[in-house]
Write a structure and sequence with these properties.
Helix content is 71%, strand content 0%.
Length: 214
């Protein structure tokens, strides 16, 4: 796919839509080295979780939707539900709930691919997260973002297209964007697909907590 087409496809997709090493004076022993390795691994996983939340800010999306629509997520069915139902659902759809989904997905991914975590942190920090903020920031969060130039989009396009990043894309719900860029579906449908994969489970879980029947 040539670069202008890739940029157009990317824009269409995103618009419809995160150790200290203690050593003894004589050098680390086996017992002192083990905790430092574990601490570094935990730090890498923490960074990956933070970057997941920054790259696809579900919590900010939930906050934006809730602020714009007082009866969300029941705004189209208020003849069947009460204000109490709305209040209960919204209390279970707070921004931290959305962020928790991504943090869990990052932790699950790290558990399956522990050897990739450090490199994946570098990939996301190497321009992917920043490019997503610039291309999808306004669409997802309502906050204006600087318009990206072609050079700043390169890391994101590489991330979306390279086969070696497929597992990470899936963990981040971003595989649908890659499919759209390859022509498997339109950008708008890709955006809807991402939204459904993220929001539907959250809303259904909230409904279960509130004993609200759909």
């Amino acid at each position: 796919m040539n670069r202008p087409v890739a940029r157009l496809a990317l824009t269409a997709c995103v618009a419809a839509l995160l150790s200290a090493c203690a050593t003894a004076p004589s050098g680390p022993t086996a017992s002192s080295a083990a905790p430092s390795v574990a601490a570094q691994q935990a730090s890498d996983v923490q960074q990956l979780q933070d970057l997941f939340v920054q790259t696809l800010p579900i919590g900010q999306v939930l906050a934006r939707v809730a602020a714009e629509e007082p009866n969300w997520p029941l705004q189209n069915h208020m003849d069947q539900y009460s204000a109490k139902d709305v209040a209960c659902l919204r209390s279970n759809l707070l921004p931290e709930k959305g962020d928790a989904v991504l943090r869990k997905r990052a932790a699950d991914y790290a558990a399956k691919h522990p050897d990739r975590v450090k490199d994946d942190v570098a990939v996301l920090k190497g321009g992917v997260t920043e490019a997503m903020a610039k291309t999808a920031g306004a669409a997802m969060t309502g906050k204006a973002a600087a318009k990206p130039d072609a050079e700043s989009l390169k890391p994101l396009i590489e991330f979306l297209m390279a086969p070696r990043h497929q597992d990470l894309r899936e963990a981040l719900y971003m595989d649908a964007i890659a499919d759209a860029m390859l022509g498997a579906q339109s950008g708008r449908n890709a955006g809807r697909g991402i939204g459904a994969r993220i929001m539907v489970p959250l809303v259904l879980d909230a409904a279960k907590q509130c004993n609200v029947k759909f």
